[in-house]
Amino acid sequence: MSKTKEVQQQMMAAMKAKDADRKAALSLLLSALKAKAKDKRADLTEDEENAIIQKEIKQTRETMESAPADREDIRKECQYQLDVYKEFAPAEMSEEEIRKLIQAVLDQLEITAPTMRDKGPVMKHLMPQVKGKADGKLVNKIVGEMLQG
After folding, report:
1. How many Cα atoms within 13 Å fall on the side-chain side of residue 68?
2. What sign does the dihedral 105-108-114-118 (CA atoms) show?
3. Residue in 148, 108, 112 with CA at minimum distance from that of residue 124
4. Is the confidence at residue 107, as pLDDT, over 80?
5. Stated pTM of the model
6. For residues 107 and 99, what is the distance between their CA atoms, to the nearest angstrom?
7. Residue 116: which pLDDT band, with cuts at 50, 70 and 90?
8. Which residues of 4-30 are buried (b: 16+ CB within 10 A; e: fewer)?
9. 2 within 8 A of 49, measured Cβ to Cβ
10. Residue 77: its pLDDT value, please?
């Protein structure tokens, strides 16, 4: 079943349960999925749906981080939305899995003594492998740590 249909079913269940907050979060996610499908003029693939969900998660995180400290209501709403969105997001890679993948890329590129100069080529080979599976900021941070020594 596609994620769009799954979100629709969850939204219907939330409406029946009179869970307004969940329904609102699912409605936002569903509108993003439907808008992209309408732009494409075709059904979305699973990868495209996952990319949209990841994008919504990232936008909600940014909204939460940019909210003023005294606006706890915005922060709570964003956190609830994140929790709902993560139910539909693909599982993210752990730090350990990312480190193993970085080491595999280093071995593939035959880099035995990695330095910060190697970051560009490493990221170029690594990012297509982790796209949609890990947060880019986290990957960048781990690559930086591993290249420094």
Report:
1. 2
2. negative
3. 108
4. yes
5. 0.75
6. 12
7. confident
8. beebeebbeebeeeeeeebbbbbebbb
9. yes
10. 93
Assign 149 a pLDDT band (cuts: 50, 70, 90): low
Q: How many Å apart are CA 82 and CA 140, to the nearest integer?
A: 22
Q: How far apart (Å, rounded) are the C-alpha atoms in residues 76 and 78?
A: 5
Residue 15 contacts residue 23 (beta carbons within 8 Å)? yes
Contacts 24+ apart (CB under 8 A), 72-79: 77/21
Tokens of 67: 């909210």
**Alpha carbon distance 139, 127 (integer Å):** 8
The CA distances from residue 87 to 10, 116, 119, 141, in Å, are 11, 36, 33, 25
